[in-house]
Amino acid sequence: FSIFINMLLLAMNRNFLVADYIFTVIYSVEMTIKILARGFVFHRFSYLRNAWNWLDFTVIVLAYLTLAFPFIPGLSALRAFRALKMISLLPGLRTIISAIFKSAKLMMEVLLLMLFVLLVITLFGIQIFKGVLRRKCVRNLDPDVNVTYEQWSSFVQNKLQDDIDINVCGNASSTGRCPANYTCLSDVGLNPNSGFTSYDHFGWGFVTSFQLLTLDRWENCYHLILRSSGLYYVFFFTVIVMFASYYIVNLVLAVVASSYEKEFKRKEKIKKEQEEILELRRRKEKMVNNNLYFYSMTFRDPYDMELYSSVLMNFVGTLKTRLHEKLCSWTCCAPYLKMQEKLKKIMTHSLCEGCIICCIFLNTILLAIDYYKAPYSNFLNQGNTVLTAIFAIEAFLKILAFNLLPYLSNGWNAFDFIIVMLSFVDWGLTAANFKSFDISVIRSFRMLRVFKLAKSWKTLNVLITVIFASLKEMGNLTVIVVIVIYIFAVIGMQLVGKDYLNKAAFPDNQVPRWNFTSFYKSFLMVFRVICGEWVEPLYDCMRCSRIYFCIPLFFATYIIGNFLVLNLFLALLLNFFSGDTLTAKESNNSPPLSTHIKKLLTVIKLKRFSKHHSAKIQPNEAVEGSNVKLSQLLQLQSDDKYTHNNAKIQEILQYLDYFYTAFFNLEMLLKLIGLGAVQYFTNVWTLLDFLLVVNGWLSLLSSNIKAFSSLRSLRTLRALRPLRAISRWEGMRLVVNALIRSIPSISNVMLVCLVFWLIFGIVGVQIYGGKFYQCVDRNGQRLSVDIVNNVTECQANSDKGFKWVNTEINFDNIMSAYLALLQVSTFEGWMEIMASAADARGIDLQPQTDANVYSLLYFVAFIIVGTFFTLNLFIGVIIDNFNTVHKKSRKEGALVMLLTEDQRYLYDALKRLSKVKPIKQIPPPTNIFFLFFYKVVNHRYFEPATIILIVSNMLFMTSDHYEQTEVYSYVQNVINVLFTALFSVEAVLKILGLRLYYFTQAWNIFDILVIITSIIGNLLDSVATQIGFSPTMLRVLRLARLGRLLRLVRSLKGIRRLIFTLIISVPALFNIGILLFLVMFIYSILGMNLFRDLPRNGSINEIVNFETFANSMLLLFRLTTAAGWNDVLQQLLVSNVQPNIVCILFMSSYILISFIVIVNMYVAVILENFNQAQEQEMAGVTDDDIDMFYEVWSKYDPFASQFILYEQLSDFLDDLKPPMRIPKPNAVKLAALNLPVTNGNKLHCLDILRAMCCVIVGNVKETDPLKELQGNIVERMQKKFPIRNTMQTVTTTLMIRKEVKAAMTIQKAFRRWRKRQRLKLENMRAEKKSVHSKRLRRKASRKLQLCFSVINGKDGSRP
């Protein structure tokens, strides 16, 4: 509660110093209690060992800093971070934040790659476009006019006349030209957009490059550079958009989605375990005897809180039972009960449900066909009243049939009951005639009844079910979005809010509509930035405030809000919606009509063809006439505005049209004969050819026969002829087939999205219908309310040139509302729509600035529901379905889909093994002189020194700028020569050390080419002025220096992995790019035929038009990103060249196909390949591990023979790095690997690597699909390693271990036997020795006795 109050006080943007002290004390007391209870940091469960306490600790430290140093500018804005304490208090938010933190490592790698790409783009722009945007058209002065330097400087700062909106120009070919009486001059005035858009130095170049990368208003920079430098620089923007922007920005999505999916799975696993534990507890509780309860009541503990809680639960259960008896078990008379049973049967009958559904459809139609000043509005109101009464009667009858609580226990019934109650409120307010309240808002809730169609519409039912399942996570994510918006809104108010009050800082001396002056406006401003529009608000901020506040604020808001938080929306949807989610419920239904058609065609085929015709006839590619089709495309693009009125060219084109029609008729006839009629007309691609041939005949008839002149519009369909190329291009056909197979799921979701948009559209018509009209003067400028208040006053002053006009995009009817919502969802033209809504005062009233500013919450709600959720849902289904179908359509894809997760990991690991082979290690030279250089270039400090040199060169290149002094330029050239010399020395050292092996490595060849180009560039730079060398070519040669930056990729492992994802995506991305080019080609031909005579007004100029094929392609390339499509559409609508419906269909269909479908197929490929790279890490075997394996292998096999000796195996496995390393002693583990040993006691690299992969992945159950896939892998391996097939396996490491073990056992037994034999011999010797000693002792004793007897005999005494 204290956090919420603190957030409210901060949002008020007032200095409550006492409140700051109070809240700081509260947070400090909380922290102190936790520290006293748990300790600070020194043991495992202490305060700072919990990551969430880090957040609280950081917030408290920042609070003390703001109180201790209030004089530091901007430090008080850090108080906004107190809102982060909400995250640690709400458990549901921790999953999302944990997903963000766990993706920190990958996210940093992606941001590092983004920084690297931005550096390359910026340095490229500085070298090529430095100073070009200051070439401007300046009005010619009269010959007799003399001006001073100050007057001239002031004169050239002025813009062109009001009828010319572009003043950037160029003097080279294909650049923009100045109008009459104007001259293109260089170095004139400021750069465009108040000097903020340029490549004159690294700072503004970096901001401009970031603008191009994020595609925010990039069309402005696109057209400025094309006008000033030439149309051929479109390739520069193509690379940026297709490879830099789409790839890197979507890598952020891939990282966030992957991390969220892992965190979600971990949470679900924990939740499942907890549920199992709770289930076990419930079972134990059921086993307790009920008598124990009465015993515990008799001998109860007065402090037993669990007992009191159980008593309370019993009381609530008893109360609920009694209420159920009163409200749900009405015991009435028997006739009433019989009537209730009959009524229940009637209300649950399918006919009754069908009638209600028809009423819902009718109600939706009545609400949708209403529009501003509709002549049948009264009839529609009466119809809506009747339908509301029908729904009310339905609810009343269901309550009678089911009783009240059972009726409300059904979610759909409760939902319907709420809508009926709101309808009654609508009636009451209408009867009371509350003029101050907008009843149309409540009336719009009737549209929610359309969700009742989910009972019979299974796709909508499944979708709503999944939506409710994800509602909790979606709510948590919404809270995160609100917290992020709140933090940056408060920071914006504290840092730059007051600066916006300086009106003189802005061009029109008015405070911009989007600012940070209040919390509500700051909220809208941050919301706008998060939605992707940050450039124009940044320009306004830099005009009035300090640059070191504005740029970090807007960059941080965009990166955190858009890159992280908004990508979580799509990550959540991708996690909850799989490719089969919306079709799983339909799998048990009867087969669709297409299945019956296929069966029928199969029967026809069996009857038509005999056995000897069963072989499928393949069309000969030579007969396809690819060259003729290519020349036909050239003919189509030649028919432009400037050749259309040339009679000779038109005659040639007509004869070519005859030839192509005849040629394709011949092709059709040959295919009919070769394939047969059935096979020809049942193939989609040949059927497309047939339709195009028919269209060709109709076009010829309309051109030559007056009776068929009405068919002349069909000539436009000639633009569809390039579709023939799809069937001839294998990769593109695979992409299109995958897209076609995804159409059922995509169309279902698209219909559901249209329903959501229909609801918002009808609400928009009710709220804003007829309110966008305004009174303008002769110049089209809106008049002030003080001058004109309403339509009557405007029409009364028509003699002054006042006109009461409507905006082109409005909410007057449902179709206009759909178009307006499409612009809002693509974030193009939505500022103008929201401005009209914020200024609307009412019907027939003159708009006033910010008169209805809180109505913008309607657009905020639509963007959250209709764009962040609904449109991202549509995009997510496109991505997931395309990936699923694309996997199945590929070779072996169907079998891979049958594998388990562990089996797929093993299959992917084994599949990668067949792509890499051992490489030969460069042998050291025998010559002592070359050996010295060999050791130098292979020293561990040599490569880091080179990297430091490259980084230093890069940092020095960033110092290049426009209008630098001669001394600075001289010093810069000297340093460039020095760097070139150092890199040349590096190359010479490598050549001396590696000899000819230097040229066997691609990076070395690249380095030597960069050095040679740099040397040539330095030489030409010194003599360019003397020989008149082209400055443009000199700049191109300077670009070779940028090539050195690419060497950083080789050293940075994280960036190398991300770029590897791009490399493996290139084939699929190329196919999608070709499909996109084909769509652009078709629409460019259509655009030339439909809009070639479009007048040059507004956004249509000499570059932006449909007059020629080149200009059409340039414009459509821009529209592929949906950039400024609303401006082009507005010019199409006001020009009256074609009917409005044609203009809208042309533009909206192109945006739908290119921007929403094809571009998201591009995203799908990136996500899929990134997930494959992540699965490598989850499986435990990555490409880096395989490279490490072969790097260590080269030490033991320097000549790449693919074999090592068995004696080397133990040391080799010990030298590997984890996870492949098997440290010593490893004899037992080597035997467990059971590696095959070939002739000569050798082991093959592939056998070792395969065994290591199987060990790392773990035990995997083998199934038939896995065995079949493994068989395919073995075949590939045999082709990749043919030498392995020539070597015969003689034994295995397990057999060798067994043999060694057996030999050791035999030797041990033999030694024991020898020992026993030796002991026996020693024992025998000992026994013999003991017997001999006994004999000796006996002899000695006898001799002794004899001696004693002799002695005794002489003395006469006894012994």
TrEMBL record:
Highest taxon of the lineage: Eukaryota
Residue intervals passing through the bilayer: 21-42, 54-72, 110-129, 231-257, 346-372, 384-405, 411-432, 477-497, 555-577, 684-705, 749-769, 856-879, 941-958, 970-989, 1060-1088, 1141-1167
Subcellular location: Cell membrane
Keyword field: Cell membrane, Coiled coil, Disulfide bond, Ion channel, Ion transport, Membrane, Repeat, Sodium, Sodium channel, Sodium transport, Transmembrane, Transmembrane helix, Transport, Voltage-gated channel
Cellular-component GO terms for this entry: voltage-gated sodium channel complex
Entry-linked SUPFAM superfamilies: Voltage-gated potassium channels (SSF81324)
Record bears the keyword Ribonucleoprotein: no
Coiled-coil region list: 257-290
Family matches, as PANTHER family: SODIUM CHANNEL PROTEIN 60E, VOLTAGE-GATED CATION CHANNEL CALCIUM AND SODIUM
Family, per entry: Belongs to the sodium channel (TC 1.A.1.10) family.
Functional summary from the UniProt entry: Mediates the voltage-dependent sodium ion permeability of excitable membranes. Assuming opened or closed conformations in response to the voltage difference across the membrane, the protein forms a sodium-selective channel through which Na(+) ions may pass in accordance with their electrochemical gradient.
The name this protein goes by in its record: Sodium channel protein
Organism name: Erpetoichthys calabaricus
